[in-house]
């Protein structure tokens, strides 16, 4: 019976009863005390992979079914899937399997990589019965079908999978027994032997397979030239032909295969080493690869792991992962016609490794077309984000190019031109949250004080430079902003007067005040914020402008991101604190600050705001909210909320600022007048604004037949999806003219249009498709240099993860290992590089030139529109905990991605004239539909392509509008 059920369940899994199967591994295990059981590890493919807690809940349950609605499944679960603690599992009075589990209203991901399944408290539970706390996770479909114990778990981290593979291959049970003998021999007295039970013996007699897997694995050896292992018989002589044959390995035979000119071997020259087993079979007698006739899709080539400590052999393996059709070891070391003496130097030349020579190449390539100002900006980006080992050497190498504009002003005084170039560097560093003092190896301002006015010398050397910078805003710009006070609405005036009355109070009676300014797009939140900033600064007081995103910060005068201004930690938790020392320049700046404006706070985690509160209380030595400062938060809770990886709605809401202990101290102001509508009498604009408002508030009529979240999209906005050709037509409708325009025309063309989708995987597919369609004069493929920054509490062998596994990791908003770009394509920055120059996370640019180590691009939108910038490769570190990896991933790559399409989350804060929204599946989080729809300024400029949006008997096209009403209350 066990055998029949095992074959049946394997057949059902192969057919995709739980999802399309990519691969599986199965082993049968026999215990000493009873019947056999099987371990089956299933790997899903494509979109069927388990990625969210909703995916887990659709397959796995840890709750007792309703006895009235499903009596059969209720009986099976209560009979087979209840853990009953006994002496076998109790240790010191506690269950070794951690039963009973805690009640949990929603599924979440645990720190060990295993889910914490939903186990709701039932009102029907009685004290004498087993509850959901004792249910072993199961799949309702499989349990109902096979009526037996089937424990189903979701593996969501590499740590969990690693353990499971070790468990599956751990082998048979072992048994220790003692031999009784009169002869005293301690070594022979105890034996370690394999234990075979009756069930296992019968299984082997019947020749039932104990192990099964979907794919065969061909191990591929790695060795340096002439260092392969050769086995030579000692009992007979060998002919030269036999010696040559024995000397041939799978690797050298691969090289020979690539050298051959026959048609059948031409395929080998297009293959990577690990792809060869799919197309060729290893003949161990002839010791050569022969063409495969069938079955290649079920073959996996696996290059043996080589430790980084193995030197050049490790780098040779790295090159084999990416070099197609090499004909020899020497050919493998050849890069762009240059034969490198070592595989390591070849890997460096290809950018697979981190090396400071890269910055020399980057600057050298940029000098071909960059202005001195642009070179200095690039140099600052390298200093801040790339941490070059020899910053002084880099400066010395390109000093002439970086001071060329000042040299033209002072041709007879090279020292003076150098002084002003250093001054420009210092100001650029300061405006990006750094300072020249951090780089003591570079020339310092004090060395050139004779060239500067006294106030500039004081600013550069004696005073707090952060305070000096925040006290020296452009007065003409400030006055220009204050002239806009005449256009304030009554709501603006009420808010303005309230804030200014707090700021102008005497210091001995001032208690500070915290505001929240809420309003829809067009209500003038940014407008009134800039007026308040300008007013306070015109009074020679300090006002700080921060935002939760780089794009939002650009809209505020002198704005920067909250993370950089307050030194917030990357990982946020209840005890998170800002890294600001009491004696630092930043601490002095914060003490002197009169007003703080924090934009887009609705998408910021409450722990970040609370960390700033604790920091300001500490600096000001009081217990007032934010140390008694006047703080203005602004945002729109109809937009997307804080991102919680694999978080449930409850966790997302809990992370909101509204659920902070600070919220009770906040004075709320709501702007209701839409300034765009007061200046536009168009009926269509007013209609669209009303539509957006109802979508955002969740008051738009829903379809009760489909569910409380489903709405019918307006017919003039929605396009039905009937076949894959519809997607192609949809993409063409948004970008139909891109191959008919010159590159100087593409900037404005791409800058005013984009395609939005909910998920990163969908966006990546669209970008790949459109990039292939774009005709271009140049293109490049960049591969990253990946490594592991091992954490102290991780496994000891974390550094042994194969490089191809690190390369395969693809994380949202993290640079991809393989980046393919074309001249003229739109790109988007994935991190803040130089905020003073508009290079923020989310900035959209168009590629002008592609070099080996730098990208020349032009900003397409915002206050820095048309500015030309140069982008270097940077090292980005991803905390493995966010994706359940037991290590931190270091990736050196250009921090950009193609941006024909972007995720809805990434589009928040962008203004786009022509928007196409592709929904292969409904939105899944609060505010996504509202954000997608509100990017456009008019109803006629947005279209939705909705897959599976038509339902029998219901006219129109439907999709979800997820709104958490708790966030709006």
TrEMBL record:
Q: What class of enzyme is it?
A: isomerase
Matching entries from Pfam families are given as: Helitron_like_N, PIF1, Pif1_2B_dom
Instruction: Answer whether the UniProt record assigns the keyword Translocase to this protein.
Output: no
**An MF annotation (GO) of this entry:** hydrolase activity
- According to the entry, every stretch annotated as the DNA helicase Pif1-like 2B domain falls at 804-850
* Named cofactor requirement(s): Mg(2+)
Catalysed reaction(s) here are: ATP + H2O = ADP + phosphate + H(+)
Q: Which residues form the DNA helicase Pif1-like DEAD-box helicase domain?
A: 498-702
According to its UniProt entry, the protein's GO biological process terms are: DNA recombination; DNA repair; telomere maintenance
Query: Residues in domain Helitron helicase-like?
Result: 9-42
Q: Which UniProt keywords apply?
A: ATP-binding, DNA damage, DNA recombination, DNA repair, Helicase, Hydrolase, Nucleotide-binding
**The protein's Enzyme Commission number:** 5.6.2.3
- Please state which protein family the record places this protein in: Belongs to the helicase family.
PANTHER family, alphabetically?
ATP-DEPENDENT DNA HELICASE, PTHR10492
**What's this protein's name?**
ATP-dependent DNA helicase
